[in-house]
Specification:
Layout (H helix, E strand, L loop, with lengths): L10 H8 L39 E3 L4 E3 L20 E10 L6 H11 L5 E4 L30 H16 L3 E4 L16 H16 L1 H5 L11 H4 L2 E2 L7 H10 L4 E2 L3 E2 L6 E2 L2 E3 L2 E5 L6 E3 L2 H9 L10 H20 L6 E6 L7 H13 L5 E3 L2 H10 L2 H7 L12 H4 L20
Parallel strand pairs: 3-4, 3-13, 3-14, 4-5, 6-7, 7-10, 8-11
Antiparallel strand pairs: 1-2, 9-10, 11-12
């Protein structure tokens, strides 16, 4: 089974989360929990890639990864036409993605397939490293072989490799949540640019060398070149973003999602798309919180991950309805992409897993909604006219164009309605 994950302790982390302004990617609990089955299915929506996986197979390094052609099921990024209303993008993403006894990775692959969605899975590199090889990890500012989350074992790595392979072939993105998940003192907030580069290099190496580190020679390789696949990530506890962005830009990353923002259109900062998570309403409360399961939990049961069982259903409904409120004000308003982050955890009886699943089911099949990965969103943003994006960024949270999208993005004033001064002359 995958290694036990532990919640990050410390007054600072708890306080920041309680203030609902940080996405504290902290994990706890025994990995041996209830399983959910996974059944293969077809999206039937997204456009296929240029090459069928398996038609090309070029092993990379020790064969842990391989080039197999263009990733399948990728949408074509098209520029908005003048006056065209933008689609409503929604990104569902997962910190510390790995398959353990809960089988939440396979569960949400199935949810994505059944609801025409792609997702981003941020892999923690140490989940690809067996416990007995932990000394291979040299975390910045910490003792060799240390980590604030668990390492893995052969069974857990085999299961995680299988889920990563299938997820990528189904069109999802594999990003990074780095390695040891250090927060607070000695954590990413204190790391230099060179420290972040080293952490990223190690995260890549554990993915590119899992065969050597486990001896699992008969397990099929991951079907992608991770040096090219990896274009973005989310820092643990959203710490150290300033130096991480500098390192990421030098390493060719395209986006970062380690920040907190309102529901407005994103922009490039320091050469990377700032695809921060966002603040959404908390139903029955007079404040907003971050679009992440951990932050809803802290505002409901504090840092206790298994609070009052009688409140679990309500807490799950509260998160789901908060995400739906955020979705609706974007969908009916400025159409800013909605960015959501989560963990594969059964906190408060799995309330937040149910909340996310029900949100996916309710939004991803709506007209003009595209549930995409961060990479796919970055592709679309890069394809747009910069002037169009500048215009979109003038819209405030929940604000729709006063004269409609046709006028707002047409590049010219809309004609006055017929029968009023300035109206087009009637055709004879």
């Amino acid at each position: 089974m995958a290694a036990t994950q532990r919640i990050a302790a410390g007054v600072t982390v708890a306080a920041v989360c309680a203030a609902a302004l940080a996405g504290c990617a902290s994990e706890d609990g025994d990995a041996r929990r209830g399983a959910h089955g996974s059944k293969e299915g077809a999206h039937g929506v997204r456009q296929p890639g240029a090459a069928a996986p398996g038609s090309v197979m070029r092993p990379i390094g020790d064969g842990s990864t391989a080039y197999t052609g263009a990733q399948p099921h990728q949408p074509r990024a098209e520029r908005l036409k003048p006056g065209q209303r933008p689609p409503q993008f929604v990104v569902f993403s997962w910190d510390g993605a790995g398959e353990d006894g809960q089988k939440l990775f396979s569960r949400f692959r199935k949810v994505a397939r059944e609801n025409r969605a792609a997702m981003t899975f941020f892999l923690s590199g140490v989940y690809m490293l067996p416990e007995e090889k932990r000394e291979l990890y040299r975390p910045p500012g910490h003792a060799r072989g240390s980590s604030d989350i668990g390492f893995n074992d052969e069974r857990g790595i085999r299961a995680t490799v299988g889920q990563l392979r299938k997820a990528w072939l189904e069109g999802n993105e594999i990003g990074t949540h780095f390695n040891g998940h250090f927060c607070g003192e000695g954590g990413g907030g204190e790391w230099s640019v060179e420290d972040w580069k080293d952490e990223i290099a190690q995260a890549k190496s554990f993915v590119k060398e899992w065969r050597t580190n486990t001896g699992l020679e008969k397990v099929s390789p991951l079907p992608f070149d991770y040096d090219k696949e990896l274009v973005g990530g989310r820092t643990p506890c959203l710490e150290g973003r300033k130096n991480f962005v500098r390192a990421a830009r030098q390493l060719g990353f395209r986006y970062d999602t380690s920040g907190v923002d309102e529901q407005v259109w994103p922009e490039k900062k320091k050469g990377l798309w700032d695809l921060s998570m966002q603040l959404v309403p908390v139903p029955d409360r007079d404040f907003e919180t971050l679009t992440m399961d951990y932050n809803f939990m802290v505002n409901q049961s504090g840092t206790t991950t298994q609070g009052d069982p009688d409140r679990h259903e309500y807490w799950g409904d509260q998160m789901r309805d908060g995400l739906l409120k955020g979705f609706k004000r974007a969908y009916r308003g400025n159409r800013a992409p909605l960015i959501i982050g989560n963990h594969f955890e059964s906190w408060n009886g799995g309330a937040y897993m149910r909340a996310v699943e029900e949100t996916v089911e309710r939004v991803c099949t709506k007209p003009e909604v595209r549930c995409v990965s961060f990479r796919q969103l970055a592709d679309w943003l890069d394809a747009q006219d910069p002037r169009t994006l500048d215009k979109l960024r003038t819209l405030k949270v929940g604000e729709s164009p006063r004269k409609g999208w046709g006028s707002f993005l047409s590049g010219r004033p809309a004609p006055a309605p017929k029968g009023v001064p300035g109206a087009p002359a009637a055709k004879k």
